[in-house]
Design brief:
By secondary structure, the chain is α/β, with parallel strands linked by helices. It contains twelve helices and ten strands. The strands form two sheets. Strands 3-4-5-6-7-8-9-10 form an eight-stranded parallel sheet, covered by helices on one side. A two-stranded antiparallel sheet has the order 1-2. Helix 4 packs parallel to helix 5. It is globular and about 55 Å long.
Length: 314
């Protein structure tokens, strides 16, 4: 069984290394033969733990990323993720798939109130007026009347203007929580000292190979939730076949992916893995029946390369 788990890890890595276009096209092949979605009462019971943000809003500690999910195949993937048990769905303007996400949520049949939906304002829409307009566009595409979380996607352009708009939307009840993504310590401090509402979340790159201990401590100090936008590093640097993670996984009959997500969970980090395959969606949620020991956590710590695995984002 452990050999099967290891094989699954290798397949997952190979799958993620495929182009997004190919992956979504492949998912479409099973669209016509997959079973119809169950009624809301039949959707698997949600057992995912929640974190409480600094404004009292509760957020699932694991969610589903949606990057590269488009069209009918994308709708199917999103509905399958919800059916599997995910309640946090993460998208962004720049992904170009908010309409797909909204349609996928409707396809699932679940009550909107049971979900935690995140989107993000892109650099080109930065500034007060543009951010207000971008937010309304996102709502319309998602077919929703509010968002649970809205983030500044990157610290570029008129950040202060965007934040002013987001504060107004937050106070008006259109957004339950507002936050940022990819902000470093200086950018975060500048935003905090110049505004009334403190960010509730900072969504950044963090995984076994880029653990960001300094940012982890800073966010803890400010009571800002750390969220990992790529908890598997998209399989880069051989995460799905890493021998340290594999050796730990053998003790619990878990894959490298599950060990990685459990590591995030035990550090209190929200993670949003993306998967286009149902078996991996279920695998990603199957992390709450074991616990990494102190020795396990210490063994993972030296894997930190202290460098981004996504230099193209710099």
């Amino acid at each position: 069984m452990n050999r099967n788990n290891q094989k699954a890890g290798i397949n997952r890595r190979e799958f993620l290394e495929k182009s997004a276009k190919f992956a979504v096209s492949a998912a479409a092949l099973s669209l016509s033969t997959s079973k119809l979605w169950a009624l809301p009462s039949d959707i698997e019971k949600n057992t995912i733990p929640y974190v409480t943000l600094n404004n009292g809003v509760r957020m699932p500690i694991i969610g589903s990323g949606t990057l590269s999910m488009h069209g009918a195949a994308g709708e199917k993937c999103i509905a399958e993720a919800i059916y599997a048990g995910f309640r946090l769905i993460d998208t962004a303007t720049v992904y170009g798939n908010e309409e797909t996400v909204g349609a996928g949520i409707k396809l699932s049949g679940i009550d909107r109130k049971e979900l935690f939906v995140t989107s993000k304002v892109w650099v080109e829409d930065s500034g007060y007026e543009k951010a207000l307009k971008a937010f309304e566009t996102s709502l319309n595409k998602l077919q929703m009347d509010y968002l649970d979380l809205y983030l500044i996607h990157r610290p570029r352009g008129d950040v202060q203007g965007s934040w002013k708009a987001m504060e107004e939307l937050y106070k008006a009840g259109k957004i339950k929580a507002i936050g940022v993504s990819n902000f470093d310590a200086a950018q975060l401090n500048d935003l905090i000292k110049n505004n009334k509402v403190k960010p509730a979340v900072n969504q950044i790159e963090t995984h076994a190979f880029f653990q960001q201990p300094e940012m982890y401590s800073i966010l803890k100090k400010h009571k800002i939730q750390m969220e990992a936008w790529s908890p598997f590093a998209q399989g880069r640097n051989g995460l799905f076949t890493n021998p340290v993670l594999a050796e730990i996984g053998k003790k619990y009959n878990k894959t490298n992916a599950q060990v990685s997500l459990r590591w995030h969970f035990q550090r209190g980090i929200v993670a949003i893995p993306r998967s286009l395959q149902v078996e991996h969606m279920k695998e990603n949620l199957n992390i709450f029946d074991f616990k990494l020991s102190r020795a396990d956590m210490k063994a993972i710590a030296p894997l930190d390369l202290n460098i981004t695995q996504f230099p193209e984002w710099e």
